[in-house]
Design a protein that fits this description.
Blueprint: H1 10-13, E1 18-21, H2 23-33, H3 35-44, E2 52-57, E3 62-64, E4 71-72, E5 78-79, H4 88-94, E6 104-108, E7 111-117, E8 122-129, E9 134-135, H5 138-141, E10 155-159, E11 165-166, H6 173-183, H7 196-205, E12 215-220, H8 222-230, H9 235-248, H10 250-268, H11 275-288, E13 294-297, H12 306-317, E14 326-330, E15 341-344, H13 363-381, H14 392-399, E16 400-406, E17 416-417, H15 421-424, E18 452-457
Parallel strand pairs: 16-17
Antiparallel strand pairs: 1-2, 2-12, 3-10, 4-5, 6-9, 6-12, 7-8, 7-10, 11-14, 13-14, 15-18, 16-18
Length: 459
């Protein structure tokens, strides 16, 4: 079970939203979440010409949208660095990033970077930044060039999990009216998981709730960037950041080779799958490697104020029959994680959108076909003669453990009943200690688990 993030800067918030500090104070916080970084900077001894800014965001607040970063004004609102009324001090020290996001480090809670496809009614989680994570790299570490590869109108990011949703159905209009009454929720009854976040956010913003959940990001002023890029005395920090960035994009840099390998396997085995399922199979490998987020049941407050959300749905909405399981996006660590991560055909988050070749196929049929595709890929990848035999791709293929779930019975005994999930992963019945769900059961008929794949490592 993932550990609760350390509360390290709550006493500095004072509801001001943005606080200017210096390294002698910041190092205490950074030491707890990124000690190697802190050690390197200690050697550099940056003075007061290198200010840092602590920004505090409540759950669901955008710290950046498709235009630029958004900074809290301490009054419940936000402004862009490019705004004419932005504070002069902010323009002076953070103005270098007026058209994008300044270099930052998450100190507390999490940030989700995602693609919002409003017309499709889905979000695609791209990155989840946990405490100690530095972002974004592409604007600051790359060599200056007229070619800009990173789009600035595609990704957004929020404090906490934007792609979180309640696992059991919360689409009953009568029960939803209770939330509207108790928390002044304006959103209509949700018709999809995409709409759950807006309701979570409205509950937490209600005057009936005292929500102290905050995500803290530390932004670096321009002098830091100038020194990192051009001062030989700062080479150690420059090198360290390059190493982090290099490792973060390891999969993306080698993805073309994996694509070729899988294409060769398809041709060799005369595999002509539904393009949609072939894309999904590739995405499962990326999820196993941690290159793409999957989903997991929340058991702490790192990604969202879980206690308040569960309490609202138990006591106000009236969710009595099922556990108030909240799913959230996170990255799987193949080497360290002992609990599974999940993907669902009913809630796709692949990075490509090939059409289904058979629109009349059932999800249960697609699950069996996906299992066949993955079985063939794994058989070929694990052969000693495989061209990926000395790579992490080969290791993953040997040790990844995939299980397929649906609430309908599979006559081929390939897909397991989704009701089995709760006995295999106790997180699905987690309820925060302050809440009670007596008599509740796992929502085995929830859309997400009607076509769900669990990913873990064989031990």
């Amino acid at each position: 079970m993932e550990q609760e993030s350390v509360k390290i800067v709550r006493d500095k918030d004072e509801q001001q939203g943005l606080i200017k500090i210096y390294w002698e104070e910041a190092r205490e916080y950074v030491q707890q979440v990124e000690p190697t970084f802190a050690g390197i900077v200690d050697e550099l001894e940056p003075d007061h010409s290198f200010p840092l800014y602590l920004a505090y965001y409540p759950y669901g607040a955008y710290d950046a949208d498709t235009q630029s970063s958004l900074l809290p004004d301490g009054k419940g609102g936000y402004y862009r660095i490019s705004d004419p009324n932005a504070p002069k001090d902010i323009i002076k020290y953070l103005g270098y990033s007026k058209d994008y996001t300044p270099l930052g480090m998450v100190l507390e809670k999490e940030i989700e970077c995602f693609i919002d496809l409003k017309n499709e009614g889905i979000t695609i989680p791209r990155w989840v930044y946990k405490p100690g994570k530095i972002f974004p790299f592409s604007r600051f570490l790359g060599k200056k060039t007229n070619r800009i590869y990173s789009p600035n109108d595609l990704l957004s990011s929020t404090a906490g999990a934007r792609s979180a949703f309640m696992l059991p159905n919360i689409g009953c209009s009568i029960n939803h009216a209770n939330l509207q009454r108790d928390f002044n929720v304006q959103s209509s009854t949700p018709k999809s998981m995409y709409e759950h976040w807006s309701i979570f956010k409205e509950i937490l913003q209600s005057e009936a709730i005292k929500d102290e959940w905050r995500c803290c990001v530390m932004y670096f002023s321009e002098n830091w960037i100038t020194k990192i890029r051009g001062d030989i005395a700062w080479t150690s920090l420059n090198k360290y950041l390059y190493e982090i960035a290099w490792n973060q994009f390891e999969y993306e840099r080698n993805r073309i080779y994996y694509e070729i390998i899988l294409s060769v396997i398809q041709k060799k085995r005369n595999l002509k799958p539904n393009p949609y399922l072939a894309d999904t199979a590739r995405h499962l490998f990326a999820t196993t490697l941690g290159a793409a987020p999957g989903y997991a049941p929340a058991t702490n407050e790192n990604a969202l104020p879980l206690n308040i959300i569960q309490k609202a749905f138990i006591e106000s909405y009236g969710l009595k029959k099922y556990y108030p399981t909240v799913m959230y996006p996170t990255h799987f660590n193949f080497e360290e994680d002992t609990t599974p991560i999940y993907y669902s055909l009913q809630h796709p988050s692949t990075h490509v959108f090939s059409p289904k070749s058979r629109n009349d196929s059932t999800t249960l049929y697609d699950m069996r076909e996906l299992q066949r595709i993955m079985r063939i890929f794994i058989e070929e990848l694990t052969k000693e003669t495989s061209i990926s035999s000395d790579t992490i791709f080969n290791e993953v293929a040997k040790e990844m453990n995939l299980k397929y779930f649906h609430n309908k019975k599979c006559q081929h005994h390939i897909v397991q009943p989704s009701a089995d999930l709760v006995s295999l992963d106790e997180r699905f019945q987690y309820v925060t200690p302050n809440n009670k769900a007596n008599g509740a059961k796992f929502a085995s008929d929830a859309p997400f688990v009607r076509g769900c794949i669990s990913i873990s490592r064989n031990v």
